[in-house]
Amino acid sequence: MAELPTTRPVAVLFANRVVACSAIARAEGVRRGLRRREAQARCPELFLAQADPDRDARLFEPVVAAVAATVPGVEVLRPGLLLLGARGAARFFGSEEAAAERLVDAAAAVGVETQIGIADELSTAVIAARRAAIVPAGAGARFLAPLPVGELAVEPSLAAPARADLVDLLHRLGLRRVGDFAALSTIEVASRFGADAVRAHRCARAEPERPPSARRPSPDLVVEYRCDPPIERVDAAAFAGRLLATRLHVALAAAGLACTRLSVFAETEAGEELSRIWRCAEPLTPESTADRVRWQLDGWLTRRDGGRPTAPITVLRLEPVEVVAAGALQLGLWGGVGEEDERARRALIRVQGLLGGEAVRVGVLSGGRGPAERITMVALGDELVPAADPTQPWPGRLPEPAPAVILLNRPLVRLEAADGTPVEVTGRAMFDADPALLRWGSRQWRLTGWAGPWPVDERWWAPDPDDTSAECAARAQVQLDGAPADVRVLLLIYYDETWRVEGLYG
What we know:
Shape: elongated
Largest sheet: 6 strands, mixed
């Protein structure tokens, strides 16, 4: 392909379908998703090439180097697509238009045709780049609104393959434009379409799809490999990349983290230092990390534009630039990263697609005094952020151990003394009689032991008399004689002059 004239239309095939095409081919009617025969029928002069990520990464490295030499801070999304901050470049060159011209010239110097898009958000900028457009500040949603809804599934580095199914469904529902989809409320999208649809909805509204990470990666997460013998061949580089990727993800798993931006470093015998940052829409897996390391090393070792290292590589290093909680991968329920974990994750995502984004949720330890308050339920796929800080003191917190099961409906029970009178809690937060019997519906058990009560006097300042959380309450633990093992020890809560079951101890 390197020997083809720039005027020749080109398309890339995967599984006999077009996955990418040049601007000239698009002008002739070639589009992504077309079958080979249909693409050739629309453009008989079309040159067809098979998809090859290794080749693309190798040919794209000189472009990345040329852009990085013009404007620092380049990050690679995939071979063929990179991003950088426009604010600094616009300030340096005088305007966004002038910066775009300089970048196009830098890419043209290495024989590549490029298109540039500028927008407030990453996904909007990627869509704008396909049209060589500069979107004014704050106008992202207005720019996206008239575009076909299929644009939300075009870029593989921003959308999973399943996004195509969502686009097909939106078409059948009559939502043909991005603006039609953006007009839906977030609750409607989450309850009807699932987690990926929520991300697509944020893209359609030109909202940030992933908030910036507030966590600074620990230096302990950096992994390094000293090459002995030094690496000169691509196959040796690929082996080293797999080894480093495994080490990195072991360190990330131990810290409960996942990586979304990765920096690849290399040092040579001649003292040269090479580095490149890769950004991903989804947290990296060991396989995707190894792929990016291999692509990057292949690009460095095979460059033909004079930028190739002059000596073999002696040190390789991977450094996470941005991390998120490992819950973003949702692999903790099965432990580790593997095929079974991925299958389980895909199954749960399918459940979300059928029942809504909130249908599959996981718990994260939160701050609070009661057991229900200490768990924040987060939708599968979202970062595990607790509603309150669990490291705070929380005076009056229920003593350990915590209940194994929490009953959110809090069923009513009756606590009685030996003479059959109901047991209540006095104003001094004490039993008015020793409890001896517990009645739960039609069943009853004698008590073999009890602890408490512990007063719960929270939100006494609340001005709303209907706010039940402001009322005085108390908790107690009771042990039942002859009850099944899963309900033998109960956590009871007393408020509004009634006893309720709040939790079960395993």
